Amino acid sequence: MTPRTPSPAAASRTRPVRLGPRSVAALALVSVVGAAGFTWPLFADPASQVGAHAQDAPWLFAGLLVLLVAVVAATISESGLGPKAVAMLGVLAATGAALRPIGAGTAGIEPMFFLMVLSGRVLGPGFGFVLGNVTMFASALLTGGVGPWLPFQMLAMGWFTLGAGLLPGYRLRGRGEAAMLAGYGFLAAFAYGTVMNLAGWPYMNALASGIAFDPHAGLAANLARFLAYCVATSLGWDLGRAAVTVVLTFFLGPAVLRALRRATRRAAFESPVAFEPS
Q: What share of the chain is helix, strand, coil (3-state, %, to 5)?
């Protein structure tokens, strides 16, 4: 007998967070500001005074992103992040944070990413965005990686996990779904590395290297410098991260997806939590 595949409507009922208009608007706002925070070096006017604040801008955007990410998380929580969902969020975030130190980022060995892809796929974009933020924050505390780059990492991981929740083909199962998620994980792992390069690139002194951000150069020149910067500093790590994500997703993905879906069905997120008197 062929197992019955749940309908999209049933899937929406098992997801812990439903994005409403307020949540979508908050996500759009933080995404626009975040995109500006990542890409401003490429589009800054060489004739403006932005170059004089090239070292300050990442700090300003980092502070702003902390506030905006907090607002988005609070808005999404108001959309229905109940106690059951909070419990699952804590378990998955703790697991992801524990996975991150494995390999300590050596050659891109970061198994946390594959768990974020699978969790976002099963639990949806709203939960995925919050999970990506919380996991990255918790892992930074665990590894001592707290700094001005952390808000950018939190936002980038939120996008990474949210995107997995927006993938089509809900009825897809088995190796086909694992292959789709592996492909997404491969591309998203490179995208994550690229946007994080943008966040750290302005810190380099333009006089120290020919691949550093030059506030007095135009878009074409800085884009060429940035591409050279990515190749010279992070291509190997990004490739390793993408390869590890693909291998783990393809080979462990079906089993982990089944476990996550079974957990969400048993959690019955929309059923109220009732405490019986003793």
A: 75, 0, 25
Choose among 171, 163, 154, 153: nearest CA to 125.
Answer: 163
Supply the angle between the helices 112-123 and 83-99 in degrees, to the nearest 10.
160
Cβ atoms of 89 and 54 closer than 8 Å: no
Gap between the terminal Cα atoms of the chain: 44
2: amino acid identity, one letter: T
Are 161 and 112 in contact by the 8 Å Cβ rule? The answer is: no
Q: Is 151:69 a contact under the CB 8 Å cutoff?
A: yes
Give Cα separations from 197 to 39, 78, 224 (angstroms).
10, 33, 14
DSSP 112-156: HHHHHHHHHHHH-HHHHHHHHHHHHHHHHHHHT--STTHHHHHHH
Q: Which residues contact 1 (CB under 8 A, 6 or more apart)?
A: none
Q: pTM, whole model, 2 decimals? A: 0.78
Q: How far apart are CA 152 and CA 163, in angstroms?
A: 16
Tell me the per-residue pLDDT of 222-250, one tens digit each, with 9 for 90 and over.
889 899 999 988 888 889 889 999 999 98
Which has the closest alpha carbon to 66: 138, 150, 145? Answer: 150
Per-residue pLDDT tens digits for 167-209: 987 777 888 898 999 999 999 999 999 998 988 787 776 556 7
**C-beta separation of 196 from 152 below 8 A:** yes
